[in-house]
Predict the 3D structure of the following.
Amino acid sequence: MKENEKNILEKYSQGSISEEEYRSLKQMFLDGEDEKILKMIDEYCDKDTTVYTLSPEIKENLREKTWRQIKKDYFRKRLQKVAAIAAALLFPILAFSTLYFYFQADEYKQIQNAIVSQNGQKAEFTLPDGTCVHLNSGSKLSYSSDFNKNIRVVNLEGEAFFEVMPNKDKPFIVKTSVFDVEVLGTSFNVSVYDDEETVETALVEGKVKLTLNENREHPIYLTPSQKYVYSKNEKKGDILLTDKEYELAWKDGILMFKAESLENVFQKIERWYGVTIHYDKNNIIHDQFTGKFEDLTIQEMMNILRMHYNLKYKIEQNNIYII
């Protein structure tokens, strides 16, 4: 592959392809240079660490989708519009809508499949065993390609709600940096963010066995309406009654606060809207904030905080400055 050809597909997907490069890419399809096209698809996807080696079937499917879009774009006169449509097609395929790749995994056990939900996004998907997963903002779930063969193991960073497909012969295990949660068939929420001092598991239905990484000899069992809250600093946890509405509000698109500090409120808002809030931790009001919000813009949410705390702020793109 020539040096000036290897990034054409990437440029096409990003909407930055030139007229000459666009004609070259189209000609490659017309000439049937499938091997070269598939190699470019591989090189493009290799830049995304969340996408593993694609199977021949997936690559061929992607090649066909790309060619169909190029043919549709060919008759459009303005290159800018061509590029925009190209980006609209491929960017979701190769960047955000990665579930298509993950659920058609190669059969190599070493390969890790991953679904990532960036700040400001959420994901809902079904694992190969039929388990439904809701992934909250700023979270990642991964599993190996031999998932569901003898045992069902997933790794979680952040927060997710699981509706596990029952299978008494194949335990379902969620591994986190603090504890493992083992179930046979149940619904539960796990929240293990690296930047939060407490982590927790809340059980909705069924029964779970929770094993701390630092004390695997004494597992903890939860029954419905219970949650386990663990303090990283204090190295201990407690079993508490859970508030189902509060625990699962995020899954239903509701941003909910329950007697939370302003610092925690800012932290949730950052994940929810995909923004960064800049403020002086030594100069914020220390009281407890409670509220339930749905379908608010970031401007509307900040206006509520402005009235409640009498604070001033300014928004610059994805940055919010408390002044």
